[in-house]
Amino acid sequence: MGKTTIAAAIIESMRRKGMKPILAVDADPNSTLGDWLGIKCSCTVADIIEETKGLRNLPEGVSKPAHLQFQIQRTLVESTGIDLLVMGRPEGPDCYCMANNMLRGYITELAKNYPYVVLDNEAGMEHLNRKTTQNIDALLLVSDPTRIGLRTTKNIKELIDKLTFLTIKKKYLILNKSENINSEFGAEIKDTGLELVGSVPVEKELQRLELEGKPISGLPDTSPFMKAVGEIVERIIK
């Protein structure tokens, strides 16, 4: 249980706190955010781009921007307080630069309809490099409480700092599966150059929910995991 689970918990915590509507964007090719949110998506943005071969295989006379907007609107799954957009995994070998450029503009416009947007990015930086996300209020980097994990997080942070096209107001570190931080890890955390916004403990109940195919909303407010995530949300959204 890691990055996507925490993203889903953040979204659920925001919903419980009345911070809605929320646009949840699943930009991880594994596309499991919807499972944790209990929202089923049958068509992804990648499906649409692949079907049209990067918007080159369109009926004559069809405007490419209008077509993309219509098709992506079709992939948006609406639910109570949370709408889900799934990017999916591109399968074709073609270059879809035109489609990605249009997609960036559309997501920017779509986000204007929501006071809150939460994006679950893939573990690397490929989505950020595609420039479909450029203005970020809070970037959360998740690490397990190990030296290797923290040093990897530091490297990712340094690489992100070099992406000059990104505007990021705040960068935070979240420690996953961690309850106690000793002085040694304190030094490693400081060395990442990130502000530690919170730690989330191991939650055994999450495994049961996953095995039963149930969403994270099945965790009560009294869950130590949900309590920790709720505190993180309050620190980020002041």
3D structure, described in words:
The structure is a single chain. This protein is an alpha/beta fold and 238 residues long. It has a single domain (3-133, 201-236), classed as 3-Layer(aba) Sandwich (Rossmann fold), CATH 3.40.50. Helices cover 43% and strands 18% of the residues. It has ten helices and seven strands. A four-stranded mixed sheet has the order 2-3-1-4, with helices on both faces. It has a three-stranded parallel sheet with strand order 5-6-7. Helix 1 (3-16) packs across helix 10 and helix 7 (147-161) packs parallel to helix 8 (183-191). The mean pLDDT is 85.
What is the highest CATH level, the class?
A: Alpha Beta
Arrangement of strands in the largest sheet = 2-3-1-4
In CATH terms, the superfamily is P-loop containing nucleotide triphosphate hydrolases
User: Approximately what portion of the residues adopt beta-strand conformation?
Assistant: 15-25%
Quote the average pLDDT: 85
Morphology: globular
Instruction: Count all strands and give the number.
Output: 7
CATH topology: Rossmann fold
N- and C-termini, Cα separation: 27 Å
What is the helix fraction of residues, given as a range?
40-55%
SSE series: HEHHHEEHEHEHEHEHH
Number of separate domains: 1
